[in-house]
From TrEMBL:
Keywords from the UniProt entry: DNA-binding
The PucR C-terminal helix-turn-helix domain, residue ranges: 461-518
GO molecular function term, any single one: DNA binding
The species this protein was found in: Actinocrispum wychmicini
Protein name: DNA-binding PucR family transcriptional regulator
InterPro entries in alphabetical order: CdaR-like_regulators (IPR051448), PucR_C-HTH_dom (IPR025736), PucR_C-HTH_sf (IPR042070)
């Protein structure tokens, strides 16, 4: 039986998505980088109708009895074959044929493995082969923000994705991941307590106390909805340590982001995602009207809006590491902003991630949210993020607010979070220095002589003149800053004016000199 074609993900991505709690690699003679395109279930009586790139789930055959089917599937181009057995002869046959062989846990359900494999493949690439966010990555982000072990389920309580962790899992989580129902006494308790009903009817975070006698640890859960329609739930199991203080708030935002993933999986995932991203991109560029965006996200176009731009502060030498960090950052931002505003939009442009927060109540609120995101990135994900905040009087002025936020980051200031109102002088100075750097024809060539003199004589004329000008001509204050005698500084200033032929009593020359020497020192 052949199931629907999928988009494609590497075997490595697929195995990470499924997790080693369900499968183990017995052999992979071609490595793990080839692309899986489809999932195929083969019964013992099926003809091996397999195509290149298929992941084959071989049910009903074990050990040496499976060798002929494994060889036939491999010769038809199968990428990997999953079996519920360990046999040296079978492993050698798979190695000889150049096909990966996966051992499935005996108590795992085939339909659960198929569902997880399909989800992993579908989330591996969009219609154009570009990576898109997936539920497994999102589950890992939610785990970092809550301090717990995450399971994302559909309305039938089937696990769609879960976080990976070395922490101890309880019996309910283990059985859920394996595709089997949890202990019936506990499940009946959840029904009696109205937990499932509360998850279906609201966004309320529902606490569920532990039941040591059943091997069940404490949990919190939240329903995932699209409007009034329930789509599933997110469960957070407490591990060896208590959940983080902000776990409940993070879970509300996570549910809203998860809803988008689940809706997209039912429709056209690439189109749905690109629609929201293109709306925000157009608004940020000034090419899409505020009315069009507001109508799509259900926001008031006349209300103030916040624009926050994020960037990674630490560059990674390896491109794959950089992309991983950026994906983690984007997931983190999406969860936090969705908790803050249901209508929030997030998109990536170049190396930066932009978030739109419509219907802003106060600028202090968006600053506080941004600081929380930056702190969470460092604490829970281990990445350093810088951010800048712009505020638009209404949605039509989003592009202006975006430009102001970009200017703050462009200045390269060592400040985690800022708005242009906080650092306008530093931003303007940075922009002036950039202009001077890009246009040598507008610089005073005489001042280059000071840098040349310092280089040839190991002197300190440039820093001395700069300190003097920054101290507004106060020789004693400048000398203290340089840790030299005032007479030494006076000598250096006289020497600098002689070499460059400049008049530091002229206000215009002082201004030009300070700007250009600041650029020289920075370079």
């Amino acid at each position: 039986m052949i199931v629907q074609p999928a988009k494609g993900a590497s075997l490595r991505q697929l195995l990470l998505a499924i997790g080693d709690q369900l499968v183990e690699v017995l052999t992979a003679p071609r490595g793990l980088d080839d692309i899986a395109h489809d999932v195929v279930i083969l019964d013992p009586d099926d003809a091996p109708d397999v195509r290149p790139g298929d992941v084959v789930l071989l049910i009903g055959l074990r050990g040496r009895a499976a060798v002929p089917v494994v060889r036939a599937a491999a010769r038809r181009g199968a990428l990997a074959i999953a079996v519920k057995s360990r046999d040296d002869v079978l492993t050698q046959a798979a190695t000889d044929e150049g096909v990966a062989l996966l051992a499935v846990r005996p108590d795992a359900r085939w339909e659960q493995l198929e569902s997880l494999a399909r989800s992993g493949i579908l989330s591996g690439a969009d219609a154009e082969g570009e990576a898109v966010g997936d539920l497994f990555s999102l589950a890992q982000t939610i785990a970092a923000l809550t301090g717990g072990l995450i399971s994302i389920e559909d309305t039938s309580n089937r696990v769609l994705a879960y976080s990976r962790s070395s922490d101890e899992v309880d019996e309910l989580r283990r059985l859920s991941i394996l595709g089997r129902q949890g202990p019936e006494p506990y499940m009946q308790m959840l029904r009696d307590w109205g937990v499932y009903q509360r998850l279906r009817e609201s966004e309320e975070v529902v606490p569920v106390e532990e039941r040591p006698e059943l091997g069940i640890r404490r949990r919190i859960a939240v329903g995932v909805h699209a409007g009034n329609q329930p789509l599933g739930a997110i469960w957070v199991q407490e591990g060896a340590t208590a959940l983080l203080p902000g776990a409940a708030k993070a879970l509300v935002g996570a549910a809203r982001v998860t809803a988008l993933h689940l809706v997209r999986s039912r429709n056209n995932p690439a189109a749905e995602m690109r629609l929201r991203e293109s709306l925000l991109e157009g608004l940020l560029d000034g090419n899409t009207t505020a009315a069009a965006v507001a109508a799509n996200i259900g926001a008031d176009p006349l209300a103030p809006a916040g624009v926050v731009v994020f960037t990674l502060a630490d560059a990674a030498a390896d491109r794959s590491v950089l992309e991983l960090r950026r994906a983690e950052m984007t997931n983190l931002i999406a969860v936090h902003t969705a908790a803050y505003r249901r209508a929030a939009l997030v998109t990536t442009l170049g190396a930066r991630v932009y978030a739109l927060l419509p219907e802003l109540r106060t600028s202090e609120g968006v600053l506080a949210l941004t600081k929380d995101i930056v702190a969470a990135a460092r604490k829970h994900v281990g990445i350093t993020v810088r951010a800048a905040v712009g505020v638009a009087a209404d949605l039509s002025r989003t592009a202006t607010a975006r430009r102001e936020a970009d200017r703050v980051l462009d200045a390269g200031l060592d400040i985690p979070v800022a708005s242009i109102a906080d650092v306008r002088a530093q931003v303007v100075l940075s922009e002036l220095l950039t202009l001077l750097g890009e246009h040598p024809e507008i610089r005073d060539p005489r001042l280059d002589l000071l840098a040349d003199y310092d280089a040839r004589h190991a002197s300190n004329l440039v820093p001395s003149v700069l300190a003097y000008l920054e101290a507004l001509g106060d020789v004693r204050a400048a000398a203290r800053g340089l840790n030299v005698h005032p007479n030494t500084l006076r000598y250096r200033i006289r020497r600098a004016t002689e070499i460059a032929g400049i008049d530091l009593d002229d206000p215009k020359q002082r201004l030009v000199t300070q700007l250009q020497l600041t650029l020289t020192k920075a370079g």
